[in-house]
Amino acid sequence: GQQVMQIPQYQHVQEGEDFTTYCNSSTTLSNIQWYKQRPGGHPVFLIQLVKSGEVKKQKRLTFQFGEAKKNSSLHITATQTTDVGTYFCALPTPYNQGGKLIFGQGTELSVKP
Amino acid sequence: DGGITQSPKYLFRKEGQNVTLSCEQNLNHDAMYWYRQDPGQGLRLIYYSQIVNDFQKGDIAEGYSVSREKKESFPLTVTSAQKNPTAFYLCASSIEGVSWEPQHFGDGTRLSIL
After folding, report:
1. pLDDT digit of tens for each residue in chain A (113 aa)?
2. Does B64 touch chain A (CB under 8 A)?
3. Cβ of B48 and A108 within 8 Å?
4. Three-state SS for A81?
5. Does residue B104 belong to the interface with chain A, where contact is any CB pair within 8 Å?
6. Measured between CB atoms, which of A9, A41, A92 is closest to B99?
7. Which segments within chain A are labelled E, that is strand?
8. Which one, out of A45, A79, A81, B3, has a CA that is 20 to 30 A from the CA of A109?
9. A48 and B42: CB-CB below 8 Å?
10. CB neighbourhood size of B1 (10 A)
Protein backbone atom coordinates (compact mmCIF):
# COMPACT_ATOMS: atom_id res chain seq x y z
CA GLY A 1 0.00 0.00 0.00
CA GLN A 2 0.88 3.65 -0.05
CA GLN A 3 3.70 4.64 2.29
CA VAL A 4 4.90 7.99 3.56
CA MET A 5 8.23 8.85 5.10
CA GLN A 6 8.76 12.16 6.88
CA ILE A 7 12.20 13.26 8.07
CA PRO A 8 13.70 14.23 10.38
CA GLN A 9 11.65 13.03 13.34
CA TYR A 10 13.04 15.75 15.60
CA GLN A 11 14.83 19.03 14.95
CA HIS A 12 16.26 21.33 17.59
CA VAL A 13 17.32 24.77 16.39
CA GLN A 14 18.48 28.05 17.84
CA GLU A 15 16.05 30.88 17.31
CA GLY A 16 16.87 32.56 14.03
CA GLU A 17 18.14 29.40 12.33
CA ASP A 18 16.33 27.85 9.39
CA PHE A 19 14.37 24.58 9.49
CA THR A 20 13.30 22.10 6.83
CA THR A 21 11.17 18.96 6.97
CA TYR A 22 10.81 16.53 4.09
CA CYS A 23 7.98 14.23 3.11
CA ASN A 24 8.39 11.37 0.66
CA SER A 25 5.73 9.17 -0.87
CA SER A 26 6.05 5.73 -2.43
CA THR A 27 3.49 6.72 -5.07
CA THR A 28 2.74 9.75 -7.26
CA LEU A 29 0.38 12.12 -5.52
CA SER A 30 -2.53 14.20 -6.75
CA ASN A 31 -1.96 16.69 -3.94
CA ILE A 32 -0.35 17.01 -0.53
CA GLN A 33 -1.39 18.85 2.60
CA TRP A 34 0.62 20.21 5.52
CA TYR A 35 -0.57 20.59 9.12
CA LYS A 36 0.93 22.06 12.29
CA GLN A 37 0.23 20.79 15.79
CA ARG A 38 1.32 22.96 18.71
CA PRO A 39 2.32 21.13 21.93
CA GLY A 40 -0.85 19.94 23.66
CA GLY A 41 -2.97 21.13 20.75
CA HIS A 42 -4.64 19.74 17.68
CA PRO A 43 -3.45 19.71 14.06
CA VAL A 44 -4.25 22.82 12.07
CA PHE A 45 -4.31 22.88 8.28
CA LEU A 46 -1.57 25.03 6.78
CA ILE A 47 -1.66 24.54 3.03
CA GLN A 48 -2.36 22.25 0.10
CA LEU A 49 -0.08 21.78 -2.92
CA VAL A 50 -1.46 20.45 -6.18
CA LYS A 51 0.80 21.26 -9.13
CA SER A 52 4.11 19.67 -10.05
CA GLY A 53 6.99 21.88 -8.89
CA GLU A 54 4.61 24.20 -7.04
CA VAL A 55 6.08 26.62 -4.50
CA LYS A 56 3.88 28.48 -2.05
CA LYS A 57 4.87 30.93 0.66
CA GLN A 58 3.21 31.94 3.89
CA LYS A 59 5.34 34.64 5.50
CA ARG A 60 8.49 32.76 6.65
CA LEU A 61 7.15 29.35 5.56
CA THR A 62 7.92 28.00 2.08
CA PHE A 63 6.21 24.87 0.81
CA GLN A 64 7.41 22.94 -2.23
CA PHE A 65 5.92 20.07 -4.22
CA GLY A 66 8.40 17.97 -6.16
CA GLU A 67 8.47 17.85 -9.93
CA ALA A 68 7.54 14.16 -9.88
CA LYS A 69 4.82 14.81 -7.27
CA LYS A 70 6.29 12.19 -4.95
CA ASN A 71 7.87 14.47 -2.39
CA SER A 72 7.37 17.77 -0.64
CA SER A 73 9.17 20.04 1.78
CA LEU A 74 8.39 22.74 4.30
CA HIS A 75 11.08 25.31 5.00
CA ILE A 76 10.94 27.90 7.76
CA THR A 77 13.29 30.86 7.50
CA ALA A 78 14.63 32.43 10.69
CA THR A 79 12.68 30.34 13.16
CA GLN A 80 10.87 31.93 16.08
CA THR A 81 9.63 30.39 19.32
CA THR A 82 6.11 30.57 17.91
CA ASP A 83 7.14 27.99 15.29
CA VAL A 84 7.46 25.28 17.97
CA GLY A 85 5.31 22.24 17.28
CA THR A 86 5.02 19.17 15.12
CA TYR A 87 4.63 19.52 11.38
CA PHE A 88 2.80 16.77 9.49
CA CYS A 89 2.42 16.10 5.83
CA ALA A 90 -0.77 14.33 4.75
CA LEU A 91 -1.12 12.29 1.58
CA PRO A 92 -4.35 11.48 -0.22
CA THR A 93 -5.74 8.08 -1.08
CA PRO A 94 -7.89 7.66 -4.18
CA TYR A 95 -11.62 8.28 -3.79
CA ASN A 96 -12.37 4.62 -4.47
CA GLN A 97 -10.21 3.80 -1.46
CA GLY A 98 -12.13 6.17 0.77
CA GLY A 99 -10.56 9.47 -0.19
CA LYS A 100 -8.93 9.64 3.19
CA LEU A 101 -5.60 11.15 4.22
CA ILE A 102 -2.51 9.29 5.38
CA PHE A 103 -0.47 11.38 7.81
CA GLY A 104 3.29 11.27 8.01
CA GLN A 105 5.00 10.58 11.31
CA GLY A 106 5.64 14.29 11.78
CA THR A 107 8.70 16.41 12.48
CA GLU A 108 8.85 17.88 15.97
CA LEU A 109 10.50 21.29 15.99
CA SER A 110 11.88 22.83 19.15
CA VAL A 111 13.35 26.34 19.13
CA LYS A 112 15.81 27.56 21.74
CA PRO A 113 15.49 31.28 22.43
CA ASP B 1 -18.68 30.23 15.99
CA GLY B 2 -18.37 27.11 13.87
CA GLY B 3 -16.17 24.27 14.94
CA ILE B 4 -15.73 20.78 16.31
CA THR B 5 -16.38 20.03 19.96
CA GLN B 6 -14.90 16.96 21.60
CA SER B 7 -15.80 15.87 25.11
CA PRO B 8 -14.64 15.09 27.62
CA LYS B 9 -11.15 16.56 27.48
CA TYR B 10 -9.82 13.85 29.81
CA LEU B 11 -11.28 10.39 30.36
CA PHE B 12 -10.29 7.48 32.54
CA ARG B 13 -11.28 3.90 31.80
CA LYS B 14 -11.40 0.98 34.15
CA GLU B 15 -10.46 -2.48 33.00
CA GLY B 16 -13.28 -4.19 31.13
CA GLN B 17 -15.22 -0.96 30.67
CA ASN B 18 -16.52 0.58 27.46
CA VAL B 19 -16.26 4.36 27.16
CA THR B 20 -17.70 6.73 24.59
CA LEU B 21 -15.99 9.85 23.28
CA SER B 22 -18.20 12.58 21.92
CA CYS B 23 -17.60 14.56 18.74
CA GLU B 24 -20.00 17.23 17.50
CA GLN B 25 -19.54 19.63 14.59
CA ASN B 26 -21.59 22.62 13.44
CA LEU B 27 -19.67 23.19 10.23
CA ASN B 28 -22.26 21.35 8.13
CA HIS B 29 -19.52 18.99 6.96
CA ASP B 30 -20.45 15.68 5.40
CA ALA B 31 -17.34 13.74 6.40
CA MET B 32 -16.04 12.98 9.87
CA TYR B 33 -12.99 11.08 11.10
CA TRP B 34 -11.51 9.60 14.25
CA TYR B 35 -7.75 9.42 14.75
CA ARG B 36 -5.57 8.02 17.47
CA GLN B 37 -2.27 9.70 18.35
CA ASP B 38 0.35 8.09 20.57
CA PRO B 39 3.25 10.10 22.04
CA GLY B 40 5.73 11.10 19.35
CA GLN B 41 3.62 9.45 16.68
CA GLY B 42 1.59 10.53 13.74
CA LEU B 43 -2.15 10.24 13.38
CA ARG B 44 -3.64 6.83 12.72
CA LEU B 45 -7.14 6.56 11.31
CA ILE B 46 -9.64 4.54 13.37
CA TYR B 47 -12.94 5.08 11.54
CA TYR B 48 -14.33 7.55 9.08
CA SER B 49 -17.73 8.49 7.72
CA GLN B 50 -18.27 10.17 4.39
CA ILE B 51 -22.01 10.59 4.88
CA VAL B 52 -24.73 10.12 7.47
CA ASN B 53 -25.65 6.49 8.27
CA ASP B 54 -22.45 5.20 6.68
CA PHE B 55 -18.95 4.64 8.02
CA GLN B 56 -15.84 2.62 7.16
CA LYS B 57 -13.01 1.10 9.14
CA GLY B 58 -9.68 2.83 9.09
CA ASP B 59 -6.28 1.30 9.71
CA ILE B 60 -6.74 0.47 13.41
CA ALA B 61 -10.47 -0.16 13.91
CA GLU B 62 -10.17 -3.25 16.12
CA GLY B 63 -11.53 -2.59 19.61
CA TYR B 64 -13.44 0.51 18.53
CA SER B 65 -16.97 1.19 17.27
CA VAL B 66 -18.76 4.25 15.89
CA SER B 67 -22.17 5.44 14.76
CA ARG B 68 -23.26 8.25 12.46
CA GLU B 69 -26.97 8.75 12.99
CA LYS B 70 -26.80 12.52 12.62
CA LYS B 71 -24.69 14.68 10.37
CA GLU B 72 -23.41 16.67 13.33
CA SER B 73 -22.36 13.78 15.53
CA PHE B 74 -19.82 10.96 15.28
CA PRO B 75 -19.29 9.29 18.68
CA LEU B 76 -16.47 6.80 19.19
CA THR B 77 -16.77 3.91 21.65
CA VAL B 78 -13.58 2.39 22.98
CA THR B 79 -14.53 -1.15 23.93
CA SER B 80 -12.96 -3.48 26.45
CA ALA B 81 -11.52 -5.37 23.48
CA GLN B 82 -9.07 -2.50 22.93
CA LYS B 83 -6.25 -3.65 25.20
CA ASN B 84 -4.08 -0.55 24.91
CA PRO B 85 -6.49 2.40 24.78
CA THR B 86 -4.27 5.02 26.42
CA ALA B 87 -3.81 7.70 23.75
CA PHE B 88 -4.88 11.10 22.49
CA TYR B 89 -8.04 10.82 20.35
CA LEU B 90 -8.75 13.41 17.71
CA CYS B 91 -11.97 13.93 15.78
CA ALA B 92 -11.93 15.78 12.48
CA SER B 93 -14.34 16.78 9.75
CA SER B 94 -14.18 17.95 6.15
CA ILE B 95 -16.70 19.39 3.73
CA GLU B 96 -16.70 16.19 1.72
CA GLY B 97 -15.00 12.85 2.21
CA VAL B 98 -12.40 13.52 -0.45
CA SER B 99 -8.66 13.82 0.01
CA TRP B 100 -8.32 17.33 -1.42
CA GLU B 101 -10.48 18.87 1.29
CA PRO B 102 -8.63 20.10 4.39
CA GLN B 103 -9.61 18.50 7.67
CA HIS B 104 -10.64 20.52 10.72
CA PHE B 105 -9.82 19.03 14.10
CA GLY B 106 -11.34 19.19 17.55
CA ASP B 107 -9.26 19.77 20.68
CA GLY B 108 -9.03 16.06 21.41
CA THR B 109 -9.74 13.68 24.29
CA ARG B 110 -6.95 12.14 26.37
CA LEU B 111 -7.90 8.63 27.47
CA SER B 112 -6.05 6.81 30.23
CA ILE B 113 -6.41 3.45 31.94
CA LEU B 114 -7.09 3.42 35.69
Report:
1. 678 999 999 999 999 999 999 999 999 999 999 999 999 999 999 999 999 999 999 999 999 999 999 999 999 999 999 999 999 999 988 766 666 899 999 999 999 99
2. no
3. no
4. helix
5. yes
6. A92
7. 4-7, 10-14, 19-25, 32-37, 43-49, 55-58, 61-65, 71-76, 85-92, 101-103, 107-112
8. B3
9. no
10. 3
